[in-house]
Amino acid sequence: MTAGNPLSNQTEKVAFWAAPAQAVERRTAAVEAVVMRAWEEFLAPHASQGLAVLAVGGFGRCELCPRSDVDLLLLMEREEPAAPLRSAISSFLQALWDSDLRASHSVRTVQECCAVHEQNIELNISLLDQRFLAGDQALYGKLAPGLARFFHSQRQALARHLCRLARERHAKQGGSMYQLEPNVKESPGGLRDLHLVTWLSQLRNTQPDRLPIADCVPELLPARDFLLGLRCYLHLRAGRDSNALTFDLQEEIADQFSLDAGGWMRRYYSHARQIERAAERAMESVDEQSSNLLLQFRDWRSRVSNAEFYVSRERVYFRGAQRLDYDPSLALRLFEFVGRHGMRLAVETGRRLAERLPRLAEHFTSRPGDLWPSLERTLASPHCALALRAMHQTGVLAALFPEWQQIECLVVRDFYHRYTVDEHSLRAIEALTSLRDGDDPSRRQFADILSEVDDPELLALALLFHDVGKAARTGSHVRESLVLAGAAMDRAGVPAGKRAQVMALIEYHLDLSAVMNSRDLGDPGTARHLAQRSGTLEFLKKLTLLTYADISAVNPGAMSPWRLEQLWRVYVIAYNELTRELETNRIGDETAAGIPGAGKFLEGFPVRYLRTHTPAEIEAHMALEQRSRDRGVAVDIRRENGFYRLTLVARDRPALLASLAGALAGFGMNILKAEGFANRNGVILDTFVFEDPHRTLELNPPEVDRLRLTLERVTLGKLDVKELLRNRPTPGAPSKRSRIHPAVSFDSRASDSATLIEVVAQDRPGLLHALTSTISAAGANIEVVLIDTEAHKAIDVFYVTWNGKKLTPAQQDGLRGRLMAACAPDGKP
Amino acid sequence: MKKVEAIVQPFKFEEVRDALKAIGVDGITVTDVRGHGRQKGHKEVYRGQEYQVDLLPKVKLELVIADARLDEVVRTLTRAARTGKIGDGKVFVYDVMDAVRIRNDDRGESAL
Fold first, then answer.
1. CATH number given to A294-581
2. pLDDT in the model for residue A590
């Protein structure tokens, strides 16, 4: 007596592929015959004592794969069976195991079957698929109406439990169907999700007087056949209940269809995606029927609805999707909305978009100029990862960027990657954005760097395209990615400066990983190499974050604490080198001679100057220097993206920087960034980026001229900055919680001729003036200055000399206390 | 049989792996580890703050080989991992009593 593996020869394997539904029914029938024989032999004599055997789970559904568990329910009249019956049940199960069947049984009374089992909801659910096999018909006659009433009365609670279990299962399976080696039963989009759709449909249609019927949704039948055939193959191949679709098996199966493994896996993903969407839709409708506190909160959130979109139960809907027909940019505004509010699209909204994808693709291919401003806002939004995922799931991302389509469901095998290329890219963006609200202390330092980056949207854009070249399989995906990303950005109208940054990020995206793995981090040559590749602190920060996100999205364990530490070391080494070379690496005669018209103006500026300024900016600086020759000073103030940029060229004099910072503070301006360089002839170029918190300049345009005049007079020593500061109100101290404790450090090894002073402090209006005045008052000269502000934290770097030499330890000690005092909120210790 | 356990600098790992592969050693177990020997970590400065890094990142390699190959393997390994500076790492050698290939119960050197 055996039903063990009746389908193991080649013909039977082919049968599974050709007609899987019929094959699993045949397998079920074969198993049923074995169960019935065992029943007759051991349990039939006891049937009169109130005993019946039911097929449940996959066996009940007539959907047994070759090595599936055989789920049985032994329905009893009484809770405690008599000893002879217990012994007979034992022999019955033994016989099944001896027949090479993995019997999984439970023994229950009718009352137990009709009660909610909070700790074992699976038991309740398995009864949705129950089927009478043999035994006491009268006993089963009591169960059927009881179950119908039970399912009808408990339908909402059971549906909620099912959704919870499904979400837990999805999370356990990595939260994505786009895994390179998925589990065809448990992964999102697997067979279990198909069962979920059927069960939820049964519960929705349940009636108090009859049991719900299990019917597969007709449009999912092809996907069901595909996955069933695949699961049978995996069982036969492994000789056990194994549902893992490994690389080896993918190749083996693809061979049978004369496809490469990647091409065949795209078939798998397309079927799994259908099931996943149906499961999402079904779970969403359960959410809609539920009513609890959380949902009341969600309804409250629906106040963010506007004229174009409304929110219901945390899902976004179009108010009028037909508007898309004459205003396709509504689709882009939809994703801006998702990115801003962090709410997912309703399935209905996705369907509306899907209906219009060809029209959207056509519109944005013919009028790409519409794309960038909206895309930029989406990429810069707090929930940009969610918005991009929604764009991807609805097909809009591929419609906007055919380049993206090339990596959809793309499998590129290596030992480390767990996801398809598109999924990896989206996860990388999620890793980046989750830094913002993550509270993991080991990642806080990376979160700090992210808060210092001016345009994080460029990072998201670079991550979106960094691997698009992998589809070409040329072995150098970076080069291909650059070509494709360049074309996509040109079409979308990404401004030249931003495009160049994204291209550089893509080009160097493997650099830091390579350094981590193959360079001696203790070698000064490594630091120089990193500084040279990064060019500026700003770019280094972006590249570090890109590397962090890229590694984090390889697999859940890829960014181990060990690797996190290595990446941080690489960042610190490069950061210190870039800060050090500020003063040490100067533009010499030869470099300056290479720039037409530069003359002596650039000689002596840090090499950094050339890296951080475009040729047009350098040209403007030289023009400013020309203008300054007559009066000894030239000032330029212009508005850029909500901030003001002040550029000033003049002959240097003691405490000039402190006076300029004081003049800006006197006008109520808040300095965000500053650079100050001096050339060999004692001409300085100072640049300040500042904000105008009281909108003084915006509301009173003549004030811009007054500020310019004031700066000129302060520079020429005709106006004492103390006069301007006398009546300024003192800003209030920040709350204790948000206060940043000041730190002042000195480093005399950082430069050949100057001492580096680094100050990190709570930012406040007038801080730069206080610091620079303190340094100047001590008789020291500021050679180079670099000021940056992140949120409320000021990070100021000064290269300082005293009579042309480095500061002595005693001078450093004296200055430290005074600088700490200057950092205090009110300028007093 | 001998078990060779080597602690090497992370940036030397690929070179060591390639050198071992070149002499026909394929079976290797690799772990990212942290530790220090006489080197005792170092100080790192970032934005004016000094951090003491006590445990430095290293890579641990473990391999089991036939007795006859010991000298060749250790020589290859140390040559590939050496920079001549403090922190290059260590190699430890142990006797192995037996080995079993789980798939087919091969034992001893034939299981390697």
1. 1.10.3090.10
2. 62
